[in-house]
Specification:
Elements lengths: L6 H13 L19 H13 L2 H12 L8 E3 H21 L14 H13 L9 E3 H10 L1 H14 L16 E2 L12 H7 L11 E6 H4 L3 H8 L5 E7 L4 E6 L6 E5 L5 E6 L3 E4 L8 E4 L8 E7 L2 E7 L4 E3 L19 E11 L18 H4 L1 H9 L18
Parallel strand pairs: 3-4
Antiparallel strand pairs: 1-2, 4-14, 5-6, 5-14, 6-8, 7-10, 8-9, 10-11, 11-12, 12-13, 13-14
């Protein structure tokens, strides 16, 4: 496990191994070895971490969350958070060392250490400690059952760190693939832990490649250029940083269309990255999921998600550089609070990532890949020749790229 996890994480795993009572698996208590961990303890540890239930994993997580060698029946919220920070950092390190970052460049991305802390805080927010502020085994069991990422990250640590393989079970996929991104010119707002959180929220999960289609760093502060990147590229993820350091955005489930009506569906959501990592899904109150308009006299011109005209949960004005997040107390569409530092904010940077399969070209739409009816249906060509019809385009069309 050395080289794939911090010393702190390695010590946690070792203390957990030593705390395992191998006799419990056989229905009887037995004293563990006085010094070190035995083979029986390792077998029980592997079985519980890799194939165990939440009930079986909870005591192991309690043991790994403890800060000392002594056995305690409870741990504090802060101790669980520190364990999670070590675990997530180890997973990120494993992804990098094993070459599983799928085209992403951590050195050209956001602060990974900050992302680790934010993701750990998010996952720990689901803990339900007692009135005394402590977590016993039953509390941790309930948490592990409701937060599947904990078991997933623990499985990756054990499989990779102890070089254990599960027959017929591929290694977990934690990052989406990244394609066609000019990393030499880009400093991405995303970091790996944030990606690990956002990717599972998308309908395509980790399958569809992410492609950068707009960045103020690369394309300048142009609303028209951003609209060109947003439209006709399928689902997109919008990422915004304001001048006070808040990072937030939204997921659009459909290709954007420039029109004065709302669009999209309930798969859309808003999210924050900094100072807290959170996601806000559709409430069902209304269908004001997406809005994109330009060059209109009587309707708002800009990009909006959630809320209503002039009171969007997220708004970017077509006069590029300004926006608002007016959600007091909450955005009606997504139940989100104010995303930015101030309700009216100034943009620092914007990124748009295409995160799904691009839509198929509409029938009759010009563009690359459009074929003549003569190429699409050779039978039509044969029938026209048999009936003496003149093939006016024959010999005048440019040859297809795949034809010699």
């Amino acid at each position: 496990m050395g080289g794939l996890a911090s010393e702190s994480m390695i010590r946690r795993v070792y203390r957990c191994l030593c705390s395992v009572d191998p006799g419990l698996a056989a229905g009887k208590a037995s004293a563990p070895p006085v010094c070190g961990a035995g083979r029986e303890q390792l077998v029980v540890f592997l079985a519980d971490t890799l194939r165990g239930t939440a009930e079986e994993r909870a005591p192991l997580i309690v043991a790994m969350s403890q800060s000392g060698a002594g056995e305690a029946a409870v741990v504090s919220h802060e101790q669980v958070a520190e364990f999670l920070q070590d675990l997530i950092a180890a997973v990120v390190q494993i992804l990098a060392h094993r070459g599983r970052i799928r085209g992403w460049k951590p050195e050209r991305m956001g602060d990974c250490a900050q992302g680790v802390n934010l993701l750990a805080e998010l996952l720990c927010s689901e803990l339900r400690p007692s009135d005394e502020g402590v977590c016993d085994v039953s509390c941790v069991e309930d948490w592990v059952f409701r937060v599947p990422q904990v078991s997933l990250y623990l499985e990756m640590l054990v499989v990779e760190g102890l070089n254990v393989s599960l027959a017929g079970r591929p290694a977990p996929t934690l990052l989406p693939p990244c394609r066609d991104t000019p990393w030499k010119e880009l400093r991405c707002l995303l970091d790996l832990p944030t990606l690990m959180f956002l990717a599972p929220q998308l309908p395509d999960n980790y399958a569809a490649p992410w492609r950068l289609v707009f960045s103020t760093q690369l394309h300048g502060e142009s609303f028209t250029r951003m609209v060109a990147g947003l439209t006709k590229c399928g689902p997109t993820l919008l990422l915004i940083k304001d001048t006070k350091g808040h990072v937030f955005g939204g997921f659009a489930s459909h290709a954007w269309e420039v029109k004065p009506q709302f669009q999209g569906d309930s798969r859309c959501f808003l999210f924050t990255v900094f100072p807290r990592l959170r996601v806000f899904t559709a409430t069902g109150y209304n269908d004001h999921f997406m809005y994109l308009n330009q060059n209109q006299q009587t309707m708002p011109n800009g990009l909006g998600m959630g809320g209503q005209h002039h009171y969007f949960g997220l708004w970017l004005d077509s006069d590029f550089g300004r926006g608002h997040s007016r959600a007091k107390p909450k955005c009606t569409t997504y139940g989100s609070p104010q995303l930015s530092a101030d309700d009216d904010f100034t943009l620092d940077s914007v990124e748009v990532w295409a995160v799904g399969k691009p839509p198929e070209p509409e029938e009759g739409e010009e563009g690359k890949g459009k074929r003549s009816v003569l190429d699409a249906d050779p039978e039509v060509q044969a029938m026209m020749e048999m009936t003496g019809k003149t093939l006016h385009s024959q010999g005048l069309r440019e040859p297809e790229e795949n034809q010699e």
